[in-house]
Amino acid sequence: MSTKLPVAASNQPVSNKSAPAAQSKVLVAVGVIENSRGEIFICRRGASQHQANKWEFPGGKVEAGENVAQALARELAEEAGIVVQACQPLMQIEHDYGDKHVTLAIRKVTAFSGEPRGLEGQPSRWVPISELSQYDFPAANSPIVDMLQTEAGN
User: Which family does the similarity line name (predicted)?
Assistant: First the structure.
């Protein structure tokens, strides 16, 4: 019994060997939350998470059927205990970690109710913009820190 291999457009047989696993691609809604003192709210990632123990701007994966604003509102309610009343697009970042490709859709949260805190047991704090560069953020977050500090004149 003979087996036919699929044929590529060039009429060359396509190998049946397994290709390396496709890289994971994730769309993430990220919130930059600023208080009246000009401080930014950040959280520390858990030890079992991708980019473990690094500080981040809160947010999370955009789920099927959600837009970025909806995902951000859901994530900030679950993770930080606030209700987003208004947010606006700030920037978008594409970053390839090798094992994961992320698209960060960053929104500045311009109005919210509640006091942000780490609801999932993660450390969290308000940090002056001038001190953000002293924290260990994932590489994909560097442009956010740079932009915030440039806008603040730091």
Answer: Belongs to the Nudix hydrolase family.
Structure tokens at 44: 């520390």
Phi, psi (deg, nearest 5) at residue 143: -60, -30
Spatial distance between the Cα atoms of 149 and 154, rounded to a whole number of angstroms:
5
Q: What's the predicted TM-score (pTM) here?
A: 0.80
Name the maximum alpha-carbon separation found in the chain.
76
Beta bridge partners of 92: 105
Taking only the tens of pLDDT, the chain with its 154 residues reads 444 444 444 444 444 444 345 568 899 999 999 999 999 999 998 767 666 689 999 999 999 999 999 999 999 999 999 999 999 999 999 999 888 898 999 999 999 999 999 998 889 999 999 999 999 998 889 999 999 999 988 7
Distance, in Å, from the CA atom of 1 to the CA atom of 3, rounded to the nearest integer, reads 7
Contacts of 20 (CB under 8 A, 6+ apart): none
Could you give the CA distance from residue 40 to residue 131 in angstroms, rounded to a whole number? 10
Report DSSP state, residue 152: T
Q: 124: which strand partners?
A: 43
Rounded to whole angstroms, the Cα distance separating 73 from 85 reads 8
